[in-house]
Design a protein that fits this description.
Length: 365
Amino acid sequence: MTAGKYLKYFNVLSFFDTKRTRDIFKVNPTAEAIREDAIKTQITVFDYNSNTVNEYNFEEVQTCSNFKNNNNISWINIDGIRKKDIEAICNQFGVHYLIIEDILSVGQRPKMDELDPVLFGLLNMLYFNPQSGAVETEQISIVLGKDFVLSFQEDATRDVFNPIREKLRIQGSKLRTNGADYLCYALIDMIVDHYYVVMEKIGERIEFLEDRIVRSSNKRSLAEINALRKELIVLKRNVSPVRELVNGFIRSDSDLLEDKTTKYFKDVYDHIVQANDMAENYRDMMINLQDLYLSNVNLKMNEVMKVMAVVTCLLAPATVIGGIFGMNFDKLPYIHNENGFYIAAFLMLFIPLVMILLFRKRGWF
């Protein structure tokens, strides 16, 4: 295994920074959400049926009213959240004000609501930042109505919907031949599938960390374990509630969902259950890594103590001999012998040598 493959995922300073902890736990659902309006709103529209597809780009939400009840399926994607724009477009399509509040919320838990005449789903798109090693989130709101889908994104610079756009451009594709409910399924499915990309990156970091801990454990290893556990909290918090969201679409009796689309949502449900299981497995692995780290630390300490004990035992004969012949008595054996020093030195070396052989024979070191 080459360390260079994984070094790009590590930012040493971030392991010892508590700011990440504050970012993770600062969410307070009872507090009024404070969201800064985006500087610019970009609106992309796919207006299509089985025979034709038209793409549009706008900066003003007023033009979106032209795509309501035009006998086509319309996917209106809004990049950049601005309160007045969100309220305007939602009012055009008859979206309930409670859903508008959820769209404008910050740090909302993934959820699904059914408020006539639309179905609403809110979940987070996940990205892995290789520079900071952090799991980043972007709140995505999806509104399903009669022959239209509204999607709201916070960041216009990145999303995972490009494969859906490519399929919409292909005549005869399932997206073109099915209704708006199938498009809603495709958007949620794409977000869920991207969870596996993020988990794969985290899995690589866990693999590399495990290899490092097995080879050598130090304080940095503990800091890396702590950093990874924080990211797993973010992952688990965003993945787990999506199961309830998808289950809400499956159990819904809304006329906006065709019976044949239910099987597709069941497939997404299977994927999110598996993703949730993987997140649980990663959390168990981190607990095991922490136990492995503590075991290695204790083993190293035991090795040090064993060496110190052996050294102490080997020096004991010399200490005893030196202590005996260093006593201030008038009569001591060999005290006036011309070979007394050599005899004492010989015993100081010979006895520890015998002790070493005895320790080795017993397998003490």
